[in-house]
Write a structure and sequence with these properties.
Radius of gyration: 25 Å
Order of helices and strands: EHEHEEEHEEHEEHEHHHHHHHHHHH
Distance between the termini: 62 Å
Number of helices: 16
Number of strands: 10
Strand order of the largest sheet: 1-2-10-6-7-3
Mean pLDDT: 86
Helix content: 40-55%
Strand content: 5-15%
Length: 379
């Protein structure tokens, strides 16, 4: 089925409990997003053994999203939690062995021709576990099922039953983006809106999955730098700090190309420089280090807090403005630098541009211009 999907609403905008607030981010998550995509969706029937083989080979991928460990400050990947009980897993396998119909799965085809699992990961992980013989670190033998299958591992099934399981059909709905061809905007939106795993994924978590590459690794490294940590504060469990780094980089390099919505602008830079095709690791590291070090030394923790709390629009504009000034050499007059920062935060036009409508092109252009002008003549 060929469909033309036009959406005039933004993402869910709901923040998970415990997600720290950064002023103006919630507004951007709720902003209208006028997309126009060509998307093809079609049905496909897969034998069980083919699904398991594709999972093992990586042709079907259960995306790994970025998040900080709850035990320490390491960035770890997480898959949506496996929540099925052993009884439910047994009954699912039994249904296939009995020839009963089972629910389908939802796959999204990405630009690398992999299938990303949007819905159905519990079923697929159960199948993979049964074929491997291990579920939740324990031997996977069927329990409270029909006598013919009780206590059976996959390898214990008789040839006829094993063949029946291998050939059982699971229906998949597959979605792919046909247009535009140069980005994965619709794939991002599908994950943002339709994932049913209960994780309430945040924008940067989705980006880590869809645009994983060398840039994501560099942003992780930049997020560890001492000056940035002192400016931003404690690490975000849902990668908001890394999203702010991405905003800084995107506006520094591509600010003159900005069009709303904000999330699409950030997606584009993350995809364009996914493996550092545009800007090298050394360039990013030096520019980010120099900018954050100056801000920490001169302004300190108030650098991005015009009214006592972090402001996302202040982060992208102040950091980009200082970085632009540093292009012509080091800043020596620290007193003048601090004075200009104070003047910027007292400018009513600038405050208006970082308070409301912060993703609008006019507001973005205003704050970027005023920040750039504020620091341009600092010696």
């Amino acid at each position: 089925m060929n469909s033309r999907w036009q959406s005039d609403t933004g993402g869910s905008g709901s923040a998970s409990t415990g997600v720290e607030e950064i002023e103006d981010v919630k507004e951007e998550e709720e902003e209208p997003a006028p997309y126009d995509f060509d998307i093809t969706s079609y049905g496909a029937d897969y034998p069980v053994d083919a699904l398991v083989k594709r999972l093992d080979s990586g042709d079907i991928v259960i995306p790994t999203f970025g998040q900080y460990s709850g035990e320490d400050d390491r960035l770890v990947g997480f898959q949506r939690e496996y929540v099925w009980s052993k009884y439910k897993a047994d009954r699912f396998i039994e249904s296939l062995l009995l020839g009963l119909p089972v629910p389908g799965i939802f796959l999204v085809r990405d630009k690398f021709r992999r299938f990303l699992v949007l819905d159905g990961q519990q079923r697929l992980r159960t199948l993979q576990a049964y074929y491997r013989g291990v579920l939740n670190s324990r031997e996977f033998r069927l329990g409270k099922v029909h006598d013919n299958f009780r206590d059976q591992r996959y390898e214990d099934l008789d040839a006829q039953d094993r063949r029946k399981l291998d050939n059982s059909i699971i229906h998949a709905t597959v979605v792919r983006q046909d247009r535009p061809r140069d980005n994965q905007d619709s794939i991002y939106m599908i994950f943002e809106r339709l994932n049913t795993g209960g994780a309430n994924l945040q924008p940067q978590e989705i980006r880590v999955a869809l645009f994983n590459g060398k840039l994501a690794q560099v942003i992780h490294q930049l997020n560890e730098q001492t000056a940035w940590r002192n400016l931003y504060g404690k690490k975000s469990r849902r990668l908001k700090d890394m999203e702010m780094i991405l905003r800084f980089l995107a506006f520094y390099y591509l600010g003159d190309q900005y069009t709303r919505p904000m999330k699409t602008f950030l997606n584009r830079y993350m995809e364009m420089n996914r493996n550092l095709e545009l800007h090298s690791e050394a360039e990013l590291q030096e520019m980010f280090r120099d900018t954050t070090t100056v801000l920490e030394n001169v302004v300190g923790q108030k650098a991005f807090k015009p009214e006592g709390r972090l402001n996302a629009a202040a982060i992208d504009s102040v950091a980009a403005g200082v970085a632009k000034r540093l292009q012509r050499g080091p800043i020596n007059d620290l007193e003048q630098m601090e004075h200009q920062h104070q003047r910027l935060f007292s400018d009513t036009a600038y405050i208006d541009a970082i308070k409301t409508g912060t993703s609008e092109e006019a507001k973005v252009g205003t704050r970027m211009r005023l920040a750039r002008e504020a620091f341009a003549d600092v010696e």
